[in-house]
Amino acid sequence: MKKYKLLVLLMELGMKSIYKIFLLLVGSLLISVAQADNYLLTMSKNDDVCQHLYQVFNMDVRHKGKLALGEHKEFNWLKWDQDFFMIKRKRHIEPNFADELISKVGKQEEYATYTKYPKKGAYFDIDNNGEDEFITFQRNGASTFENRAYDSIYVYKGNALTKLSGAERNKQYTLEMGYLGSLIDSYTLKEYPIKETTVYKNGHTNYYWPHISDPFIRPLLFNNTYFIALFGNVDTHISDPLRAYNQTIDEKNAIAVVTFTPSYDPEQIKLQPSLLSTGKPSNETQDICYFVKTQVIQ
Predict the structure, then answer these.
(1) What does the DSSP 8-state code read for residue 168?
(2) Over the stretch 116-158, which tens digit does the pLDDT of each residue have?
(3) Nearest alpha carbon to residue 218 among 206, 229, 227, 226
(4) CB atoms within 10 A of CB 137
């Protein structure tokens, strides 16, 4: 009987040990899953900034469960604090600025002869040439194709604000206003291999690279150099317009970090930052880092 009790005791101790080991293993597994990198660095042309951002993005997710760009000096330095407005005339009549306000949606104001559109911008040296440009920013949404939401920035010469203020909206992308280029709803990832080549009957060839679409655009400053980070979707089409519109920055599946060199050549401005059909990417932007999502953030 004593031998039987001793055997049972040993078995219980053994089971407890096994259970403890099991808990340790499970705990270790959970820790490794929790600490797994959420963003994988897939291309780097500047290890200083790319490795630094790799740590920033993954530490945010590891400790906060999401990106917290506003808490990092690389991103929170920028304030879009230059407010101005542009107008769109109704029909082909001269705007009458003495008109009474008819309606107001947000900051957009409707008058009898024109509509007043609020804009915001900031001064910073986007091309790292030692002189500040004027950059405007807007979040696009409800009126876009399929109600898709994306950011856009437009780059102008440093003295453009006085020209843009109160000007007609259809003139904002002209040399007269000092327009130099933009980053909008889709960006070509030039450092990825060519995705598709089309040869036409006339011998003309078009080349297609993967794109990052519907981005959140966040300028960043690192080691006194300005970059642009695009948080978007690579080769992903979301068919549900509501989901496409409401997608958060954490739900995007890729990040591209680029430098931007606005063109002062009128012929080149129209190409920027698109690809030339010759297969040679435009040199108006340089792709510095690519990151892809490895997990879905709940």
Answers:
(1) B
(2) 889 999 999 999 999 999 999 988 765 555 567 889 999 999 9
(3) 229
(4) 18
Whether the link from the prior residue into 193 is cis, omega within 30° of 0, is no
Residue 65: CB atoms within 10 A of its CB come to 13
| Rounded Cα–Cα distance for residues 190 and 186 (Å) | 12
- Summarize pLDDT for 46-66 with one digit per residue, the tens: 999 999 999 999 999 999 999
Pairing of strands 254-260, 225-234: antiparallel
Distance CA 74, CA 68 (A): 11
Region at 106 (left for phi over 0; alpha for psi -120 to 50; beta for the rest): left
Q: What is the pTM of this model?
A: 0.78
CA within 13 Å, CB half, 101: 7
Q: What is the pLDDT of residues 215-256, one digit of tens each?
A: 999 999 999 999 999 999 887 666 666 676 678 899 899 999
How does residue 22 score in pLDDT terms, banded at 50, 70 and 90?
Answer: very low
Q: Among residues 123, 131, 126, which one has the least CA distance to residue 164?
A: 123
CA distance 64 to 62: 6
Cβ-contact 289, 50 below 8 angstroms = yes
Query: How many whole angstroms separate alpha carbon 64 and alpha carbon 56?
Result: 11
CA distances in angstroms from 105 to 21, 101, 102, 111, 284, listed in the order given: 62, 11, 11, 12, 36
107-124 CB burial, b ≥16 within 10 A, e <16: eebebeebbbbebebbee
Residue pair 248/275 in contact (Cβ under 8 Å)? The answer is: no
Q: Say whether pLDDT at 200 is over 80.
A: no
The span from the CA of 9 to the CA of 3, in Å, is 10
CA 221-37-253 angle, 5° bins: 70
The Cα 283–Cα 263 span in angstroms is 9
CB 291 within 8 A of CB 206: no
